Amino acid sequence: MIRLSDRAHGKEVDPSEPFVIENRFEHLEVLPTTNVPTQISFPPLTINAPPKTDLWRKPPHIDVDNIPTIFLPKSIDLNKFRSANVTVSGEWNTLYDQGGLVLYIFGEGLKKWVKTGIEFVFGKPFVGTVATARASDWSLVPLSESAGGKVTVHVERETKDDERLESLWVYVIGENGETLGVREVTWVFGPDVIDCDNPTSEERTMLVGVYGARPTVPEGEGRENEELVVKLDGFKVALFDD
């Protein structure tokens, strides 16, 4: 079992003002390429997310990353990542309540990331996915009422005939075990999307984890500090074995 590192970081944010979140990944180490299991499983996890925690980039003024997260203890070589999945549930009741998988990509001059799981909008939980390079984009997939605000999400690098392609696919595993593709993020394993004509030679790595977030302060007397409790079961990470 690889030891987990629990990194929680909180900061008051005024979205009307430009700001830069401090780099909490400044001293990342990379897992060695030898003696690392290709299948990594974790026990049930719980994350408590206080209000005003979010992971979102909307130029020109918003670049927020203060979510409570539980990561593998070190980043991995980007080319070794194969897949990850988790089952996420919680008492979703406040706008933008969320939790699930999060992948950070480093080494191209700009921190990029993909998150996917549950997000509470329009009065009910959806499967929400956000992919972020220069800016965040966001997609929603309806979740059946019978799911009870619970879903299993799976992300996997696209392959063809044993060749590793550039896309990351996001899947939802239904209550009957059916796997449904809901999002393709085409740039995750490809060249630098910031400057494709002059890609960086810097080593690229990925940090894999699970998270919870409560961007909005809950309404109601005495709820201003109420935390969202996110339950994460069956968190697994798979790496290529070369």
UniProtKB/TrEMBL annotation:
<dbReference type="InterPro" id="IPR009784">
    <property type="entry name" value="DUF1349"/>
</dbReference>
<dbReference type="Pfam" id="PF07081">
    <property type="entry name" value="DUF1349"/>
</dbReference>
<protein>
    <submittedName>
        <fullName>Uncharacterized protein</fullName>
    </submittedName>
</protein>
